[in-house]
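Sequence only, no structure available. Ideas?
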Amino acid sequence: MNQSTTVIRRAEMGLLATHKVLRNTYALLAMTVLFSAFTAGLSMVLGLPHPGVLITLAGYFGLLWLTSKFSHSAWGLVWVFALTGFMGMTLGPILNTYLTHFSNGGQLVMTAFGGTGVIFLGLSAYALTTRKDFSFMAGMLAAGILVAFLAGLVAIFLPAMSGLHIAVSAMFILLMSGMILFQTSEIIHGGETNYILATVSLYVSIFNLFTSLLQLLGIFSDE
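Reply:
I predicted one. Tokens follow.
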């Protein structure tokens, strides 16, 4: 009897811990998205130029490493806001480019924003309600993201190859959608217990999902 009670209590404690991670993740995700939107807007107002590929990659991977290193301390919160704020700053010049060079730039941006929201909310709701385990996707996602990242680097230096840009954007949309399912599943099933790392994973997925949708919309627009 005592053993059964202990098992039940441990299950309840595990469930409470999972709910806490999930709650903290979505709360921090909401704050980082808003902060990123603020820095993107600030970058747009100030008319800051894009820092370039090398600085963007160095800043992203450097801040990502610091966030991971300090993810178990209060400093992790500092670095996660530094990371998302930096990514927002790099997004501002991109948005300005669409608003300036496309007659329907505002529509493209809002469509990409709405599409990102629908995909994220839909996939998150699916993972939360069905409680399916998507841990089997880990290897496929890791390999796919590596291939898409390398292809994206090639596409940057070959801007005339629109077909490659379309393929890379489509790959990232599929992969980031898979990452949302995977990361949400990891939280639900206890595979991810650090809400800072979970937040970064979901934020990066949302960021790449938005920029990939925006690029596809720009390519397929009449202009």
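The CA atoms of residues 156 and 165 lie 8 Å apart.
Hope that gets you unstuck.
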